[in-house]
Amino acid sequence: MARETLPGVAPIPRPPRAVTIDCWSTLLRDLDSGGALRQRGAALAGVAGRLGREIAPEAAMELIDRSWALHLDEWRGGRTFGPEGAARWCLDELGLAAPRPDVEELAEAIATGTLSVGTAVVDGAAEALDALHGAGIPTALICDTGFTPSRVVREALRMHSLRVDHYFFSDEVGIPKPHAPMFLAALEATGAKPAEAVHIGDLRRTDVAGARAAGMAAIRFAGVHDDGWLAEDCQPDVEADAVLYRWADLPELLGLR
Questions:
Q1: What is the DSSP letter of 248?
Q2: Is 13 helix (H, G, I), strand (E, B) or coil?
Q3: Which residues, at least 6 apart from 240, have a Cβ–Cβ distance to it below 8 Å?
Q4: Does 9 map to a domain?
């Protein structure tokens, strides 16, 4: 069920003129994050071995994990890191001056790790998108890309036949959420004013705070990942206008039925 609008917060437009939506843990979810890590580690071990540096699979996975932590630091600082940044960092840590083709090979393995082990549509997300389209409400994806670049995310969305009108990715815009360019670009594409639109996503720091800063209403989706008060990136003073636990409740929340 959805929590109603909080006191002192501008109400969610019912219906909105546009809806922007986060990707991971909102529309899509990983099927096997451990499997993706193992595949990335195996790729690192393979490239390193070919360059004359043997590394155990467990040690390679640890390096990939450490590169993810570095990505998170960059992400929180409003900078992009991406799979090529991770590949270069891992090889540098091993003391390997890798030729460009080897860096690109490792970066590709990092980029496609999640897709290769599988993704799934969050329960009810496809039906919610269909309901928005049926009501004539334009939609835009606003996605921070991490290790999985926009071209791979687009492929995952195509594989699952998810219907979104516009796409905005941090590796294309050049800056991640919560920074305004991501949200303002999406609003311009949909033709909606900030007060007429609502953003849906799972994270307080990026989705909720970013939407608020752009003048939009915010719905926090907690059906996969509940960004509770003790979450690492949580901002205790930031909460959405409503919390959605099931996509099936979105039409009622937005006044579509």
A1: G
A2: coil
A3: 204, 207, 208, 218, 219, 220
A4: no
Q: How many domains does one find in the chain?
A: 2
Q: Can you give the CATH number for the domain in which 212 is found?
A: 3.40.50.1000
Residues 6+ apart with CB under 8 A from 18: 137, 138, 139, 140, 186, 187, 190, 191, 192, 196, 197, 198
**Alpha carbon distance 26, 230 (integer Å):** 20
Token readout for 176 is 């991640």
- Kindly report the pTM of this predicted structure: 0.90
Kindly list the averaged pLDDT for each block of 10 residues, start to end, along the chain of length 257: 45 94 97 94 96 95 96 91 95 93 96 94 97 97 96 96 96 94 96 97 94 95 82 64 96 92
Q: Contact, 137 vs 15, CB < 8 A?
A: yes
* SS3 state at 210: helix
Tell me, yes or no, whether 12 lies in a domain: no
* pLDDT for the residue 236: 54
Distance, in Å, from the CA atom of 116 to the CA atom of 103, rounded to the nearest integer, reads 19
